[in-house]
Amino acid sequence: MKSHSLSTLSRRTKEPPISWLMATALANPNLISLAAGFTDQASLPVKETTDLVHELLCSPKTGPAALQYGTTIGDPVLRELTASRLKHLDEVPAASPAVWSAERMIITNGSQQMLYMVTEALCDPGDVVLVEDPSYFVYLGILQSHGVHARGVRMEQDGLDLAHLEQVLEGLRRKGRLARLKLLYLVSYYQNPTGITTSFEKKQGALKLLRQFERLAGHPLYLLEDAAYRELRFRGEHVKSALAADPSDERVIYTGTYSKPFATGARVGFGLLPKAVYTPVVRIKGNHDFGSSNLLQQLLTRALACGIYESHLAVLRNRYAQKAKIMRKHLHQQFPPAVEWREPQGGLYFWPRLPHRLKSGPHSRLFQEALKKNVLYVPGQLCYAEDPSRPKPNNEMRLSFGAASERNICTGIERLGKALHQLL
Ligand SMILES: Cc1ncc(COP(=O)(O)O)c(C=O)c1O
Hints:
This protein is of the alpha/beta class. Helix content is 42%, strand content 13%. The chain has 14 helices and 13 strands. The chain has an eight-stranded mixed β-sheet with strand order 2-9-8-7-6-3-4-5, with helices on both faces. Strands 10-13-12 form a three-stranded antiparallel β-sheet, with no helix packed on it. Strands 1-11 form a two-stranded parallel sheet. Helix 7 (137-145) links the parallel strand 3 (128-133) and strand 4 (149-156). Pyridoxal-5'-phosphate binds at residues 37, 110-112, 136, 187, 192, 226, 228, 257, 259, 264, 267, 269.
């Protein structure tokens, strides 16, 4: 048959690498996965959540309300509490510009839904989005699925290489492609996958460049700041968000989540959006689900209001600091000195770089040897966009200390170390 019943979008959408990685882990129960971006199982707030849900449902005032539909934009108290929290993090006064207000906020089903909707609201097939090189591979999947071209911008220790960003923008201008550029996507805190945090100065610099080129593009160029790991800081100074670097108040789209810092299973995320993007995204969400789970929003509202969220976060930060320390110690002891890596100040990831001659991709000898030794990592190659302007680097790996127990971190790194020594 010549015609298809499937849409162009479904035919274009490739299997996400995450499905393949999860299937590999599930197929072998003895496998130690340092690949999953899951959070620490032992410290999930089970007791706290049980108490909160009990309180919520036992009250005749809040019980039925929590089990009823809510609104598309989300619970007003949760939006208010989240907006205040962001103001506090960005050190802005309570009476701050509209950009931090609850009226600009939408509660979503994980921040993943917001990333999807924002891309849908701004991009058509054939458009261009700039991403960090490497970037969050699930977001790369959204772009691929929508037929949007991702262009990689190199990274330095403190985030984007601004000189390269300018070069990429200039290249698009020369090719007459600037009108197709819509946004720059940054995972700005303890980045997935590299663990790098973008400095405030780099956020200012990126916004300035986007401003400079948007006159030639003929439309606004947005900075989409994905702050999924912002609250998981266990060392170093806090960096303000790009919202604080946007003098116009109209070019930064900020996404955040309560998944990583509270409970990944609750999948409560949020976004602060400029006026021009807010209404289209609310309409799209109306079609997606006309509102995220009210019960889960009420749970988060209570956790924030009574201080449980904050005290749990303190526990989590200590826990991840400890697990990162263990991974660091074992990387030092077990990995050959030719492998380079930097210690993250938060988040869940290490990003070792191997000598160029040693490949780490899914078809590499190293990956197969690691599987034989019952340990799984994310091949770095998966975190690079399909960008014809450069080959995809194939000598890096993402290692997560989020879900694995301390013992499995030690054993997993030891096994990987053996595989590396064998092949080097
Ligand atoms: C960089 C980044 N952004 C967004 C998300 C989505 O998280 P959630 O939908 O649980 O908020 C993740 C999840 O791993 C992530 O790593």
